[in-house]
Design goal:
- This protein has an 8-stranded mixed β-sheet, covered by helices on one side.
- Helices cover 34% and strands 19% of the residues.
- The protein is built from 13 helices and 15 strands.
- The radius of gyration is 24 Å and the shape is globular.
- It folds into 2 domains: 94 residues, no CATH class; 270 residues, no CATH class.
- The termini are far apart.
- By secondary structure, it is of the alpha/beta class.
């Protein structure tokens, strides 16, 4: 009887393995994972050199893992199991209270290099009123929602360390984000970015530091454009049990823009791309994702002043506020812009103000900012 039972189990397991193998062979392969917002590993080309060095086997393992049948479902089950046994973080994401997923902040490695590079850049363009805004992330503002005794490096310590050694103006947003978080949601629950409300209050601090009168919250027509945003941390944790986020836009009446996506040679009249609202990567609704260079012209303002924003994706939801105060806003992402930014500034002589805007977590690993010149 025991032999029959064991054979039955072996038969069922073999049948499952065979079924998964057949599915793997015949199921259509997906190039891009909407859930993880990344391209999946394609089948590697065989090269003797890669095989000897182990690269082929490594890429093959990645291909098999990325294309395993019902992969998202298995990953969700894995996360559920880890939650049941009491695990408090998954893939560097804390499972926090109030449906928040909060990315860990690890010990930064490049503070001194960042300081050196930014100070040298400012020396090169010292005729521009340059500002540095290092945005804290959700882990600083929503620290009280973290699991009890969750270990984390202090973001404010990093911000203060860099600010104290920067030779140009810096903008502190921690206090206002912390205070306004009581009234509005400053950070998405399931994504690593700040919300449009968070970007708005950061904009008010930029305006305060640069003698600009910011528009009041009541000046804007605030509209929810989606309530189904499941962002990067949702994908990293595979915890699909949490409440989705809403995305809002803040619009002023009777303002006309020309938005030039230079590398794409496309000109639009809006800083938003509606098509992303039907996709997983809904934050890319702001500024149509990331581009090397965007030039935004405000056709409704009587000024010649221009601003350059050197940034990561945190700036994408803040730039629409800044565009209300300048004739042109030049938006450069150093990850993709391969020319000299200082030369670009020299060529555009009406650029009088500059803003370097990064979140404090991203700037430490961003190769673009370390190569700024």
């Amino acid at each position: 009887m025991k032999k029959v039972h064991n054979r039955l189990i072996a038969f069922v397991v073999s049948l499952i393995i065979l079924g998964l193998f057949v599915l793997f062979i015949f199921m259509p392969k997906v190039e891009f994972s909407e859930n993880e917002n990344r391209y999946l590993q394609s089948f590697p080309k065989f090269k003797i050199k890669d095989f000897i060095e182990g690269d082929f086997i490594e890429d093959l393992e990645s291909y098999l893992a990325d294309n395993f049948p019902f992969r998202d479902g298995f990953m969700s089950i894995k996360t559920l199991t880890e939650k049941v046994i009491g695990k408090e973080d998954i893939n560097n994401v804390y499972l926090a209270e109030d449906d928040y997923l909060i990315e860990k902040y690890n010990n930064p490695q490049n503070n001194d290099k960042i300081i050196e590079v930014l100070n040298e850049f400012n020396e090169t363009v010292n005729y521009v009123n340059m500002n540095l805004l290092l945005a804290p992330t959700s882990i600083a503002i929503n620290k009280d929602l973290l699991p009890k005794n969750a270990p984390t490096y202090d973001e404010l310590e990093t911000i203060n360390y860099i600010y104290n050694k920067i030779n140009f103006d810096t903008i502190d947003t921690y206090e206002i984000l912390k205070e306004k978080n009581k009234d509005y949601q400053m950070y998405y629950r399931l994504d690593h970015h700040w919300t449009t409300f968070g970007a708005y209050y950061a904009y008010t601090k930029y305006a305060e530091a640069n003698n600009i009168t910011p528009y009041s919250l009541n000046s804007f027509d605030i509209k929810e454009v989606t309530n189904d945003f499941n962002g990067t941390l949702y994908s990293k944790s595979n915890d699909y049990t949490r409440k989705s986020d809403s995305i809002h836009t803040f619009a002023l009446k009777d303002i006309s823009y020309e938005v030039n996506y230079v590398s794409k040679e496309v000109i639009k009249d809006t800083m938003y791309e509606d098509s992303y609202l039907t996709k997983k990567d809904k934050y890319s609704y702001f500024l149509d994702n990331n581009h090397p260079l965007i030039v935004i012209t405000n056709n409704s303002i009587n000024t010649k002043k221009e601003l350059i924003v050197i940034k990561d994706s945190y700036a994408n939801s803040m730039v629409p506020f800044l565009a209300n105060h300048y004739k042109k806003v030049h938006v450069i992402d150093p990850r993709y812009y391969k020319n000299s930014i200082s030369d670009y500034i020299k060529e555009n002589k009406n650029i009088k103000d500059g803003l370097i805007l990064y979140n404090v977590m991203t700037i430490d690993s961003d190769l673009g900012i370390l190569g700024i010149k």
